[in-house]
Design brief:
By secondary structure, the protein is α+β, with helices and mostly antiparallel strands. It contains 5 helices and 7 strands. The strands form 2 sheets. A 4-stranded antiparallel β-sheet has the order 4-5-7-6. The protein is globular, with a radius of gyration of 19 Å.
Amino acid sequence: MKIRIIKLTPESLVQMLQGKVSPFTSPLPSDAELLDIKLDLFTKQVSLIVRSNSFEDIAESYPIPEFNIANATEAKAIAKPTTSVKPEPKPEPKIATANAAQPSKTAIKMENEFSPDQRKVLSFTVKGDYVIVKPIQFLKAEWDDINEVVRSLGGRWVKGDIISYWEIPLQPN
């Protein structure tokens, strides 16, 4: 698997598209292909999945590694010593939603249907009328048990080319 994830803020992506940001200090390989792009409004993060033959081959059972890039202005900011102390970031809730409080309660109830061990290997997000449940690592024996819980909640497995996940409707059919 010769793919990597590039994580950007939506603002930095817009600046790049407008040509306002200087070139990256760690450029992408010339044969890089953009396979997928995802905007997560809850974490304010854009994830780009990129493939290149020059990337180190990683087994499919491992999570997709991140391709660390920094633009020239960020590199200059990192190089300058700063005396200010940055506060530690607050942990974000595991389930976030832009909808009213009711879907959030429903989503949290759905998350609680999974065992603590299962919740450790899954991520939960609300997207539209669905709770999206994604494995954060390769699932071996756990997959069948998790799939059974998802199906009992009215959900289904969605097989993708690169990323597969479960989707559970917020409102039962």
